[in-house]
Each structure stands twice: as structure tokens, then as C-alpha cells.
Amino acid sequence: MVIDCHVHRYPPEVFANPTAFANSRGERHWQNLVVPEKGPTVQGWADRETMLADMDSGGVDKAVLLGWYWETPETCVLHNRWHAEWIRKDPERFIAFATINPLAEKAIDELKAARDEGFRGIGEILPAVQGFSIRDPNWLKIVEFAVETGWPINFHVSEPVGHPHPGRMPSPFEDFQWLAETYPELKIILAHWGGLLPFYELNEHVRKSFANVWYDVAASPLLYESKVFRSVVDIVGSEKVLYGSDYPLRLYPGKQEKPDFSTFLDEIQDAGLTESERKNILGDNASRLFGLVLPEPIPEKALNASGVWGTALVLDSGKRHLVSGVSGRGKSTLLHLIYGIRRDFLGKLLIDDKDSSTFTEEDWTYLRSRQVALLFQDLRLFPNLTARENMELLPARDEAALSTETMAERLGVAEYLEKPCGILSQGQSQRMSLIRALSRSFEILLLDEPFSHLDDENTRKAWNLIEEELERRHAGLVLSSLDEVSDFAIDHKWKL
Predict the structure, then answer these.
(1) What is the per-residue pLDDT across 124-177, written as a single tens digit (0 to 9) for each?
(2) H helices of 215-316, where?
(3) Which structural domain, as residue segments, surrounds residue 396?
(4) Which of 325, 336, 392, 406 is a plausible cystine mate for 342, CB 3.0–4.6 Å?
């Protein structure tokens, strides 16, 4: 799958007369970009039909509609409504990010509305144009919202040196580092190769700080030689690079009369990357980042036979519950609903007799920091960090838990604590992820197929450790598995 992580779109009435639109709304920076006072423009335009045809021609399956870093909050709201309409019409082709100005009085309310409309992130953001600091308390409320929803934030970043152009603005490199260190769970995308900030990851301290930072390659041909791909991948790894075009910019103004996706994609094919590196950059990284690899919808024929879906399921605290069934029936979905990272369900989800639909973001934050821990099926370890460094990204460690070293010794992976997770086997990674989950504070532990890559002996070791930690905290368990588990002490079993 090819996913373009950086495109822009406007309705025909806007690009028919961009100057009039900008003047009516006080958007002078945007106007200078699309209709510069000096020199020719590289800005192109495309309506829905043209954009979809260009995507099909270039082999682009999905595109992320980024908002603009508008100067006025009112224009942000207007752009979000455009996006809401477009993803409603073409949900299989477009993903939407919300544009926001933190100076708006009801910025969080606007983000909540965007979330309800199916948006997946925030951006582009550019403090220098929008008139705020990354350390501004109003902006940090937006950051905290993004952390809780799992949304990435895309920042417009430009290089500090080079040829002058309207999009080149001061970029707060030190503030990006501060933000990444202060909010290690925040997913940050630095657009336009991050202004070549990835080269700073040659510094070990920066590399650790930027574990949750990605770089999109939007507008690359306008800025850098194609060998930038090989250079950056050699430093940060292909897992941190996202394909983006900045469509409908004309990336090759000397030979392009109108924008397309194909020319840039052809350049990437010839950029000296391996096949696996290209796959990561062109789509696999985005799929993981945006949560597009989700369980298949539960087949209608399975609903009546299900012991979970369509019924009143009660998970008693302090008890051990097993949810089993073949892939695609919704085991992961159930755990994600309990954890609050998915909220697309009918009926009610009650937690401690409270309707989860009434929970604030602060409620979910407390729940995930104190009451519920989740081991994801896809493990979610950063490959460039060591196992120990992955553990240190936890927001807080439960002092009642066994030490990391003790658990690693028990599970036979102590010698790999200082190894990058990218070189570990699936089984070793699974045990490291289990240690990370068991290190958190929880009253209920959610484990999504935690033994899928373990042999019988290591499964037994893992289960013994899980039982010990459950008893230590008097905690409950929800375990998902492809098969029924007969060897472990389970109080209730549910079949999908």
C-alpha cells in the first residue's frame, strides 16, 4: 500500500481566486506562498476528480489531507469542515488531519469535533506563522489531547540555510527536542525532512529524545538532491521516514506543467533504497503510525454465535478472563475499546459502573496511567532504541513490580536489555513488551496474544511471571488468544 502522508486540498471556489480568499480572511502568509509577490509560483491546484485520477495514475492508495497553519482560528475551523466532507465522501482514499490555532478560545472543542468526524491527527502546525510558542500552556493542552487520542502532530519545518523561498520560516529545533523529551508518548512528524534535523540524530542524546519522531519527505525535489534518501535512512533508519509529496505543488517546475504523483515516486524508486526500505517509506510506516492495520470487521454471520459481540459482557475486576477466536473476529478491538484508543462501538462500555462515553480525556489519562495496562499485539517497540531504553519511555513505573532486570532474567532475555530492539527476534521482542506492560501500574492487565511467538517452555515462564504480578497487585486479566488455553488458571472464557 502506498500512502502519501502530506497533501493539501482546497475547494474550487478557493483556488479560483486565492487572493480574494486570503484577503477576506487575513491569511497573508498563505497568499504569499500560493501567489507570491515576486517570482513564479510552484503552486498547483486540483479538484476531487483530478486528484483521484492523479493518485490512481501514480499508484497512491491513500492520502493524508493536511490542514494549513492558518493565522486565524476561523479559517482553521472552515478547513476542518472541508476535510470532514471529503473524508465522508471518500473514506477509503483520504485520511484527515485537523488544523488548529492554539490561540483559539475553543481549540480543544474543535479537536473533539474533528475526532468525532473521523480525523486522525493534527497539522500542519507552524508556530512562527501562527503566533505561539511550543512551550505555551495553551499549545500544551493541544499536545496532551494528541497524546491521549494517539494522534500524530505534523509540524512544517524548513531548513535554516539555503535558497530563499516563501515557505522558509524559523524552525525551533531546540523546542522540538524539548517537546519530544517532555512528552515521550507524543507522535511527532517533522515535515520536509525536518529541515535536515535527522542529521542531528548522529548525536546519541538527540537520537534517544527523538525515538517518537518521524520525518516526511514532502517537497523534497524542490529542496534537496535525491541522495538525501540514502543519507537520512543510513542515520535514522527507514522506519522513521514517511512518503509525502506536498501535492498539488509542482515539484519539478522546469518540466511539470501540472502536478502529479508519478514523477516523485519514480525518483524514490531510483534513490538507492532496498525493497524493504521503500516499502517502509511508501506505506508500511504510515500504516503503523495511523493505526490502519486494524482487525477486520466482525462478519455478520459470527455475531449471533459470538459470546462477546452483541451481548452483555461482564468482566469482573480481579478475575482472569480469556477471549479466544480466529483472527478478524475482534479480539484486539475489544481490548482497544477497554483501553480507550477506539471508541467506535454501539451500546455502552461501563468501567467501574461509569459510562465511558462520559469520560473526559483526563479520565482516560488516569485510567491508562493507574488502572489499565495493555500489551499490544504488534508490540510497539522502537527498533532503534535498546530494550532498556524502550522501558524507560514509560510515563511511570510501578514500584511494586519486580525490577526490569529480575523479570528479564526470569524470561531469559537479560542479555538483550542493552541491544537495539530492531535486532531482537519476535519471541525476544514479545518478552520485552511483556516486561514493559508488567512494569506499569494496573488494576486490570490487557494482553493481546502475548504468547504467539513463544515456545511452550517460554510460554510457561511468561505465564508464571504474569500470575505472580497479578497476585502481587490483586489485579484482573483479560487475555486474548487464537486458541483456548487449557493449562492456565482462567476464571471465565469467552468465545468469538
Answers:
(1) 999 999 999 999 999 999 999 998 888 999 999 988 887 777 777 777 889 999
(2) 220-223, 228-236, 262-269, 275-279, 285-289, 300-303
(3) 300-495
(4) 336
